[in-house]
Give the backbone structure.
Amino acid sequence: MNERDTPGTLFIVTAPSGVGKTTLVRGLLERSPDLRLSVSHTTRAPREGEENGREYHFIDAAAFQRLCAAGEFLEWAEVHGNYYGTSRAWLEEQTRDGHDVILEIDWRGARQVRLVFPGAVGIFVLPPSFGELERRLRGRGTDSEETIARRLAAARGEMSHVGEFAYVIINDRLPAAIDDMAAIVRATRLRYASQHKRHSRYFSSFAQD
Ligand code: 5GP
């Protein structure tokens, strides 16, 4: 079996920062514990409350370069001055074993993953409006005008790639957005190709020559 024909599905979730993507994915995982979250490697410092191995594998730039040179990353990108990479071996093992995996990566990573896994399902999360995103980013109250302007420009750039994703969720109310995401996962699992892969014995039990 090659990577193009794996029983597990990859769900790629992309959103500009401040949209609540991580909270959304956490809510989905609580509801669907059989989904597995890919934990990326990053060179950025852990934020308060983050744990090594849970949100990210936190490594230094030299270790990142080594893993990169060894071909350990399915994709990697520089985002806001830090490096982020998706573990190739872990992902291949999970999907080969039939597990559905969630990737929280940026649009460039999404593009690279789709080249290797064309069956990956892309989900883009939008804020209720651009004005609301600005309000949320300002609401933190700790950032300078310059930082806010940079984040908004980055968000606009990221949002311009929404058309590359099969599904779009507008995160207005969190419970509704989690419902939307669960609906995408559920519908994907009910597609003929997924059902056929998961229940191949059943399908062959009534197959005719
Ligand atoms: P944060 O540092 O806020 O957790 O993430 C910053 C950005 O990096 C987010 O857009 C997130 O989706 C993206 N990101 C996290 N992990 C990866 C990864 O492994 N690959 C890529 N391409 N982007 C990632």
